[in-house]
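pinned: reference chain
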Amino acid sequence: MPITFGTDGWRGVMSDTFTFYNVRLVSQAIADAVAADELLNGSSQADNPDSRRVVVGFDTRFLSDRFAVEAARVLAGNGIKVFLTSADVPTPCVSFAVRELGAIAGIMITASHNAPRYNGLKLKASYGGAASREQCRRVEFYFNDNESRGRGPNLMDYDQSREAGLIERFNPTPSYHDHLRTLIDFDVIAENPQHVAVDSMYGSGRGQIKGILQGTGCEVTEVRGEMNPGFGGIHPEPIARYLGALAGSIAAGHGQLGLATDGDADRIGAMDGRGEFVNPHRLMSLALKYLVEQRGWSGKIVKTVSTTQMINRLGKKYGLEVIETPVGFDHIADWMLREDVIIGGEESGGISFKGHIPEGDGVLIGLLILEMVAATGSTLEELVDELLKDVGPSHYGRLDLRLTRPVPREQLSSRLISGAPKAIGELKVERVSDQDGVKFHMSDDSWLLVRPSGTEPLLRVYAEAATPENLESLLEYGRQVAGAD
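pinned: its structure tokens
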């Protein structure tokens, strides 16, 4: 069975493709890539990474801790020193530990925001971000080569690995929090402490925001922060339809605003004091506005093809270059490693900014939102209203259409481009691009994007428009053409 890495690692349904046996085989392939020095590519941003040192972490998902131990045993069996987290932690916490410990790579056992039946493995590079596409391809090569030759994993007993010093349990959270304190002005927060509700969605972000805010005077109410490996039956994704618990907490008077992190806390979602969802497009736009206008930062702005045009309008206002990439934070990471980037982000809620690792971080952005509110003395809803006055109205929507059979990307692109209409509803189609999927650009700055998911059997339809009516027209057109033969 071939293993394929998508936009952010390898995922599969537990007991189907994601099994202990396959996790061991993938871990062996990573060990082989490490031994061949093929995970050193692109690692010049790290300070002399140790090619015999790897960090392994895990989230709260069912059996994630056990899968992490199996990955560690395989790495130890190949003579690699493993730093294995002592408890569940956020993905960005593991990524930061990779860079801080000078490790050649990191493994995070998580399926992020996916349904409870999934689990997955994210591969991190020495610079503290997602491994490059080429690094993932090399791991796939070793996996397939080992399987074709009947080579099994080198597996070492856990207790023996511990006694030999090849597996060391550690807590990466204190160092991660120390780093976050260099990026967030906690004095500003302490001068105007907030009443905030935090929804960890049963994920590994639990306790993170509440813990680091201790001593600031903020009153933090955490919901869904206990261990629940099945996530209460929901997708641990911080979007409106899964945040009823957070809305209820705000309605009960437990917060003037709400923050939510996904299953492994690399994504952020928010709610204002009225219990209305504030999507990541608006959060990234607010963050950019704050970093430029309040902190005086400059540099490039990087966003994925599925992210709001509000970013482009702000970039034009500030005279800053906006770079658009394919979906996947690894593309944003490439720019953050090479250039002076103020902020990089994607529509799913993965956002990072200057000074941090090139990795989406829900905890960091949640704290920045608190700093913004505290520094300006405005509520989150007031900040959003001010943003929309600056950049114009923006309504966003996304459809996830489940596929009954695979849709070849090239075939989809060819069909959509050749059949592109002159108008969708009352909106004129100005141009069509195919950087990642097919994107219809409208004359009024609205847009529609149709693309296959890189991690799930889904076809995603994204759209942004100035009115709810035009948004619905775009989404309906996307639904129709996505379902066409």
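why pinned: Residues 192-391 form a domain with the Alpha-D-Glucose-1,6-Bisphosphate; Chain A, domain 3 fold (CATH 3.40.120.10). The radius of gyration is 22 Å.
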